[in-house]
Amino acid sequence: MNSDTRGADLTVTWEAVREGLREELGEVTYRNWLMPLGFTGVEGGRVTMTAPTRFLRDWVLQQYADLIRATWQHEHSSVQAIDIVVDPLASANAAMPSTAALSRGAAPVARRPLDLCPGAEVDGQGASAPLDARFTFENFVVGKSNDLAYAAARRVAEAEQVAFNPLFLYGGVGLGKTHLMHAIGRHIRALDPSRKVLYLSAEKFMYRFVRALRYRDTMAFKEQFRSVDVLMIDDVQFISGKESTQEEFFHTFNALIDNNRQIVISADRSPSDLEGVEERLRSRLGWGLVADLHATTYELRLGILQSKATQIEGVDIPPVVFEFLAHKISSNVRELEGALNRVVAHATLVGRAVTLEMTQEVLHDLLRANDRRVTIEEIQKRVAEHYNIKLLEMSSHRRARVVARPRQVAMYLSKQLTQRSLPEIGRKFGGRDHTTVMHAVRRVEQLQETNAEIAEDVELLLRMLES
Ligand code: ADP
Ligand code: MG
């Protein structure tokens, strides 16, 4: 193989790696942290990538090194390690490196990505992520599981004076945290357009901070955050780690509270359960009102479906379909909405009336996933039995293959058969990191192709657990 073909192949591989990372981390995280990376080449099992700044490199290595390595290995099995070198001129946004550059091992030359330029943003409302017009208080269906969160959010939106600070909303995925935050923001802006409302994901907040540090522009950063009337930070569980960012967050937070500005925070867990967050910040977050959104009830799900259906024109949905969906899809509201949308889209496209049979048919894959109620504990037990190891080994840190392989298989099955996220799965396996789970999933996928024994084990376990 001559080096040019190799270079071209690797360019394709790099694209696949980037796609894999985008898929795994979601658009927002990908864009903020991984898109600026460039690719130089692979030599002796070592991949070399570039980052435009030292800060970005450190951050990416600290947060995503395992994931990036696993993703590379998945696409290119000889990869053993990754390196990221700082190169302010290299940018992944530019065209891919030429094959000639690849074989010389030189970095591609490109402009700095626009998003990394200081001063590219205006302050005030302009610095806020946009607020979705569909997420209003009126569109929010209230039930036992979310009435406290709803009442608190309304209160914050309508209060003349700061009611409780911060308002901390927490609950599982798709239960309406983001919806309520947007509703608060829109309501406040509607009442008084001169009030500055800043709504951001925690990741965006960190990204801005990192960028400010890089350009020694922390004064402007501080100004921007401290001049707002209402600061809302969504999904704050992602702020864990990096001490300097937490430090800055903590100070910003205190400054705003001291100045009587409203803060609203959301997370997927309570303040005391935020791992990797400093104790003083954790306790400070719990000082105001902590309102949790519980799993939905059947009545609430029914109410949400009926409310959504009034916004859909031209399709008649019989009550029995609502009841069926509310009964069957209990995981989260987003999925429930998705199911309804699919049924409606199908009815509109094919010109068919919505019936129970049709609903079951259109949603059969989704319904199957919701039907399987296998728990991670059950999977661990079955897998341990199958391999004849102690159940304890599922959460132990022993690395011997006799226990490590079954553990990986159990992680893989947990990902396949439950709706748990990678971090949740990691927690059940002795508090492992999500990247470890991710690596296990990929590894077992690979092994199934190359190792007949493993493939058989997995197949057998799947069948046992699914029945
Ligand atoms: P979270 O931020 O908690 O993960 P979201 O706020 O993004 O969840 O909600 C997911 C979807 O479900 C959104 O489309 C939202 O409008 C909808 N939703 C959640 N709870 C309700 C509710 N009580 N009433 C109406 N829609 C809801
Ligand atoms: Mg959300």
Features:
4 domains, binds adenosine-5'-diphosphate, 55% helix, GMP Synthetase, Chain A, domain 3, 5-stranded parallel β-sheet, 3-stranded mixed β-sheet, Rossmann fold, globular, 20 helices, binds magnesium ion, Helicase, Ruva Protein, domain 3, 8 strands, 467 residues, disordered N terminus, alpha/beta
Q: Summarize the main sheet.
A: 5 strands, parallel
CATH level-1 class of the largest domain:
Alpha Beta
Query: Which small molecules are bound?
Result: adenosine-5'-diphosphate, magnesium ion
Q: Please count the beta strands (DSSP E, at least 2 residues each).
A: 8
Helical segment count? 20
Q: Architecture of the largest domain, CATH level 2?
A: 3-Layer(aba) Sandwich
Q: What proportion strand? A: 5-15%
Shape: globular
Give me the secondary-structure category: alpha/beta
**Unreliable residue runs:** 1-5, 92-124
